[in-house]
Amino acid sequence: MKKIEITALASVFNDVSELSLEDRNLMTKAVEARAKAYAPYSKFSVGAALLLENNQIILGSNQESAAYPSGMCAERVAVWKAGSEFPGVAITKLAITASSTETRVDKPVGPCGACRQTLSEYEMNQKKPMEILFMGETGKIIKTESLLSLLPFSFDSSFL
Ligand code: THU
């Protein structure tokens, strides 16, 4: 038996003013998307903005349903919108932000497991890393250089 160490690098920014102009603009778009969330049940609004290689920006927000599991996360709304409108165009980066009417969201909110899995399929297919930036409503922002660094030992089509 041997133990292996899994490492992932992430950058931590104190606030949006520390981001590059491109990253700040994308996060601003994610904030705009967040305002369009339909989250009457969780009261937790999430916005996602994708920058595509063709410079298109695609927005998504979480959309809930009275039949709770039928809702969808902001990240998957955005990535499937990109995949259906611009198939084969690589995703360069993804910005995510979350807020709540019930609580102060001042810590970075990372994508859920199902969204990581979905995003990893796109990253695998495009054979280029996508940068992921995430924050709450205020506070620090975490940035990773790839989706895979958020999902070690991931499952993919090579196992099938
Ligand atoms: N949500 C997202 O949109 N993205 C995530 O990565 C985590 C959770 C949404 C789903 C649901 O509408 C609300 O946040 C509370 O879970």
At a glance:
This protein has 160 residues and is an alpha+beta fold. The protein has helices at residues 21-34, 74-85, 113-126, and strands spanning 10-13, 44-52, 57-61, 91-100, 131-135, 141-144. The protein has a single domain, classed as 3-Layer(aba) Sandwich (Cytidine Deaminase, domain 2), CATH 3.40.140.10.
How do the helices and strands line up, and which of them pair or pack?
Layout: E1 10-13, H1 21-34, E2 44-52, E3 57-61, H2 74-85, E4 91-100, H3 113-126, E5 131-135, E6 141-144
Parallel strand pairs: 4-5
Antiparallel strand pairs: 1-6, 2-3, 2-4, 5-6
Structural summary, described in words:
The protein has 160 residues and is of the alpha+beta class. It has one domain (11-149): Cytidine Deaminase, domain 2. 25% of the residues lie in helices and 23% in strands. It has three helices and six strands; from the N terminus they run E-H-E-E-H-E-H-E-E. The chain has helices spanning 21-34, 74-85, 113-126, and strands at residues 10-13, 44-52, 57-61, 91-100, 131-135, 141-144. It has a six-stranded mixed sheet with strand order 1-6-5-4-2-3. Helix 3 (113-126) links the parallel strand 4 and strand 5. The longest helix has 14 residues, at 21-34. It starts with 9 loop residues before the first strand and ends in a 16-residue tail after the last strand. The model has no long low-confidence stretch (mean pLDDT 97).
**Based on helices, strands and strand pairing, what is the structural class?**
alpha+beta
Main beta sheet strand tally, sense and closure = 6 strands, mixed
Overall body shape: globular
Low-confidence stretches: none
CATH T-level fold name: Cytidine Deaminase, domain 2
Q: How many structural domains?
A: 1
**Total of DSSP H or I helical runs spanning 4+ residues:** 3
Mean pLDDT: 97
Number of strands: 6
* Rg of Cα set: 16 Å
Main β-sheet, spatial strand arrangement:
1-6-5-4-2-3
CATH C-level category? Alpha Beta
CATH superfamily: Cytidine Deaminase, domain 2
The CATH architecture can be given as: 3-Layer(aba) Sandwich
- Strand % is 15-25%
Order of helices and strands: EHEEHEHEE
Bound molecules: tetrahydrodeoxyuridine
